[in-house]
Amino acid sequence: MNRKRLVAGNWKMNTSLNDGFQLLSDILENIKEADIEQSDVSIFAPFTHLKIFQNSLNGSGIKLGAQNCHHEKSGAYTGEISAEMLASVPVEQVLIGHSERRQYFGETNSMLAQKIDRALENDLQVIYCFGETLEERESEKHIEIVTRQLEEGLFHLTSDQMSNLILAYEPVWAIGTGKTASAGQAQEIHAESRNVIRGKFGEEIASSIRILYGGSVKPSNARELFAMPDIDGGLIGGAALDAISFSEIVKA
Ligand code: PGA
Question: Please, are residues 49 and 86 in contact by the beta-carbon 8 Å criterion?
């Protein structure tokens, strides 16, 4: 099964609008059409940047995404952003279940399942993030935790819905810490996750779904990670805030 690689930049809560616009321009200068033929590229920007970025990215081949959406359709949720609002920008993709959302904002698997539903109702492509903490890995519960995150977040979906989803395995202990999972450690979880998907949705979906790795991916380790049979690209945090590093990862 030929899965096209995806390199996605998660900017998190970084850059003013001006600085972000400059970074986007630098990225556009460094990533060429030929690169996008080899690898899909997405940028998950802060909400405030989305409209202006949508104009700039138009026709570039780079997809635009948001980092979160609310699990209800609309209503009295001061300060929140709905999937429908994102679709009206329009953005094409949304991150759901990033570990920082789980950890700092109390997002549970069942809330994330609802967010996925809202996103899909609005034709947004979902990148569903999952991964274990250091404590969970050290107590050898990582496979169990990851399996539960996949089951509770995704198993209510139809095969049709599932076939358009993207997954991102991000071990919490490797995010922003400079500690990357070894290519072997990441490959093990990616293969296991694909098995979990296979058990519920069958071989065709399991072998075509893309599973990204995230957690301290840099130009120096991207090639080795991306060479693993079940790793289909990366979700990049820190290194996505530097146009040269990000484009080197895209070209890795
Ligand atoms: P990092 O972040 O590359 O800075 O570790 C990855 C992520 O959280 O998506």
Answer: no
Measure the CA angle with vertex 82, ends 101 and 214; round to 5°.
35
Q: 3-state DSSP call for residue 235? A: strand
Q: Is 247 in the pocket of ligand 1 (CB under 6 A)?
A: no
Single-letter code of the amino acid located at 219: P
Domains of the chain: 5-251 (3.20.20.70)
Q: Hey, what amino acid is at 55?
A: N
Catalytic entry in 70, 98, 142, 190: 98
Query: Quick one: which atom of ligand 1 is closest to the CA of 216?
Result: 5
Is the CB of 214 within 6 Å of ligand 1?
Answer: yes
Distance in Å, CA 171 to ligand 1 centroid? 10
Give yes or no: 80 in active site.
Answer: no
Exposure b/e, 182-217, CB count within 10 A at least 16 = b: ebeebbbbbebbbebbeeebeeebbeebbbbbbbbb
Query: Cβ(236)–Cβ(246) under 8 Å?
Result: yes
Per DSSP, what are the bridge partners of residue 34? none
Coil, strand, or helix at residue 221?
helix
pLDDT digits (tens, 9 = 90+) for 215-242: 999 999 999 999 999 999 999 999 999 9
Residue 95 has pLDDT above 90, yes or no: yes
